[in-house]
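Q: Two folds, back to back.
A: First:
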Amino acid sequence: MPRPSERALRDELLRISALCYERHLLVALDGNLSVRLSDELILCTQAGCHKGMLTGDQLVVIDLDGKKVRGLGEPTSEMAMHLACYAERPDIEAVVHAHPPTCIAFTVAGVSMARCVLPEVVLTLGAVPTLAYETTGTELLAQKVGEGIRANDAVMMDRHGAVCVGSSLLDAFCKLETMEHMAKIMKAARDLGGITDLPAEESVKLRSLGLKRYGGPPEAVAKADDPHADLPPACIECSGCGQPSHTGLMASANFSVARITNTPVRSFEVTRVEAEVRRAILETLGG
């Protein structure tokens, strides 16, 4: 299928940038977006621009080496991260990097999102890994992102944000929005008592179906018929605590809790009467 015209891609980039801001997936000068114009050229956001108020003259065209071809200003300082994604995945057409707050909170808290919880997320994204912390804007971070995107359409960077790729800017944005929606649901579930993962057999069934129906990274699609598809151990092996992390059991909370049983709770009135009877017996015996 031929690519849209440059004019159409420029309009789409402005629209998706505004959506990222409106959906609270980035603020101020955060984040950056890019899309392929051709096999050799990339259209990307300018450094230091507000994505919610982006204008056409804040877009820059660069080549695959990061050299500016045309446009005002300079490309985003994190363009190396985008170029690493394009280099690893010739099949992708767009990259969206944003700072979804709930997703980032999970990384700050040291809680992995690489779990199989929501069926629709397993179908379309599988499990979302978190990359180890690296200084923003560095080649080392760009390298890690490229390696992560090789087998995933979405990754989290510890304390930094998300990178999502897709067949279009809208496709990449939808993956970003889905990640933040999942994170909000997972946080709400933890607040209500804990996250219950999908059974391993169902997780594999869903992921295999999703890879065959919707596609994904070529490396992941090649594993669609493997025993565990491309899912991580956390989706296959239960740690026993109901809230597993990528390293197994969560760290000790250093406090004790009451034991929960299925014994019916007796009413306050019953326990009050029992207490009065015991008091009367003790007084009689003492007398």
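A: Second:
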Amino acid sequence: MRGRSGARRVSRALLITLILVWSAFPIYWALNTSFTTLNGAQSVPAHFMPSPLTAQNYKTLLNSSGGVGNQFWRSFLNATIESGLATVLTVVIALFAAYAFARLEFRGKRIILVAVLATLLLPVYATLIPLYRIMSSVHLVNTYPGIILVYTSGFLPLAIWIMYNYFASVPRELEEAAFVDGATPVVALWRVMIPVSLPGIAATAIIVFLMGWAQFIFPLVLSSDLTTQPVTVVVAALYGQRIVPFTLLNAVGVLAAALPGVIALVLNRYIVQGVMAGSIK
């Protein structure tokens, strides 16, 4: 028995190591390539450490007066604005919707909740053309509001589901005490439910922001120039330009992934809580 359990532990450790290497090696290689010159990156055999070591690619990006640096930082700002505002709007709407589904009684509540959640099963690309035509008809193509509204409509069902499970797990006695003091449902939501459910709200906001940052096909269709294009679209466009050295492109990719990477690492606990909450019921 001891031999079998030891063999299982060894095989499990080897499997985890293999998965980590498989997942982390592309990130390491992008970092390695971004800190060397074009000749160094093209050398044979390949260097597993930057040779020569240089930060010139990052200096080029920090120069935002024109060229690739200007495109990158403008798209980085676009992605931050679009993902951030979509997160705020999604969380605010989800707060009220989730509270209504979890606590209030009204006709057709269960049917409406199921209908909202059923939209998660709809292929996102099936809505691309209708959304573009709607946004075009109201002149919201290539605008911040258009992209933010599309993000919000796509992320809202998942946000409602996560926060609904958090609200449903809060003891009703806390609200009843507030109602005895004369609180309305909105006051109970503000003074009782939100403070108690802050971890769930934080998890929802983080997940929504990361989903917004990773969007590609919708902003590609809905934004036609650098005024609104997020970093994912601009990075893909730069990879299609042969005049841009691929060492510089790797530096662009590293910086584009830095913000969501830091958020995922630092706030991983809240992300796990949000995912677990969405799978409880």
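Q: And?
A: The first helix runs from residue 2 to 34.
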